[in-house]
Design brief:
Rossmann fold, 7-stranded mixed sheet, 11 helices
């Protein structure tokens, strides 16, 4: 599939009109005051990767983020990880995402939580980052690469915009076995023609070819699987669906999608990997 066609399909999959209104209604239903909100109040919908806010903080600690670091969050979604990084680590984050509505919602939730000085979001493409070479201390991706077919081009762009000594930090869904037939729908794709998963060897070798040095390379599947299994069960229970949750974005199939992820993980068809790779100085 050419990049333009894939971009259109990704926007169709994720872009749901009225998302901000649904989130703010959920916040009201939970009794939240918008003038006293923290980023964590929206984490159930805005950090919809495995492990949620907890995994964001753990990944940032692995990466040894420093106050004042300039971070590029590629595939930022609704900005949940970026806001967590600003709140907890004092960094500055530029977030990009293909889905324009995600960026609009991310900017508004960031304004509501009082973090606009630290995080800003705009539409962008991971294959053609609109950044000068050596602009960032850290490039961050958190389960945002599953829809990217040309990952080598993405890695080349990551390497280009990193400062010498900077870090590429990620948590991504990989194929347990390349070309494994996984169960759909899943949160990132309703059908196989939108899902591009590489296995660990292919991913690692592609990054190493850019002369980036591995500091952390970790299979985190077992660490988060039990928690995700419980979360999937809650999402699927239509009689007790959480007020704030991923269903606000993914709609009625959210429960099925999460159950399928649990099934795919449990069978070893997919895996969750975390990594920190440093660009040579």
């Amino acid at each position: 599939m050419d990049n333009q066609a894939l971009e259109a399909r990704v926007n169709e999959h994720y872009g749901k009109e009225g998302l901000l209104e649904r989130i703010l209604t959920a916040a009201s239903d939970e009794g939240l005051r918008l003038d006293h909100c923290q980023s964590s109040d929206f984490s159930a919908v805005s950090e919809f990767h495995i492990g949620g806010r907890k995994s964001t903080i753990e990944l940032a600690k692995m990466a040894q983020l420093s106050e004042g670091d300039k971070v590029l969050d590629v595939g930022c979604g609704l900005g949940g990880p970026a806001r967590t990084l600003v709140e907890e680590f004092g960094v500055f984050v530029d977030g990009i995402d293909l889905t324009s509505e995600f960026c609009a919602v991310a900017n508004e939730l960031t304004r509501i939580t009082g973090l606009s000085e630290g995080a800003k979001f705009s539409q962008g493409n991971a294959l053609n980052l609109n950044c000068e070479p050596g602009s960032y201390d850290v490039v961050w991706t958190q389960q945002s690469c599953m829809n990217i077919e040309d990952k080598r081009q993405m890695f080349a762009e990551v390497n280009r915009v990193l400062k010498p000594g900077g870090a590429y930090v990620f948590q991504e869904v990989l194929a347990g076995v390349e070309d494994a037939v996984i169960k759909f729908p899943v949160p990132w794709a309703k059908e196989a023609n939108m899902s591009y998963l590489w296995d660990e060897e292919k991913i690692k070798n592609s990054i190493l070819k850019l002369n980036m040095v591995p500091h952390i390379w970790k299979n985190a599947t077992e660490q988060y699987l039990d928690e995700y299994r419980i979360l999937a069960a809650k999402t699927a229970d239509v009689s007790n669906t959480p007020v704030m949750g991923v269903h606000l974005m993914l709609g009625g199939q959210a429960g099925v999608m999460r159950r399928n992820v649990v099934s795919n993980l449990s069978q070893g068809l997919i895996a969750i990997y975390q990594g920190v790779f440093k660009k040579e100085k």
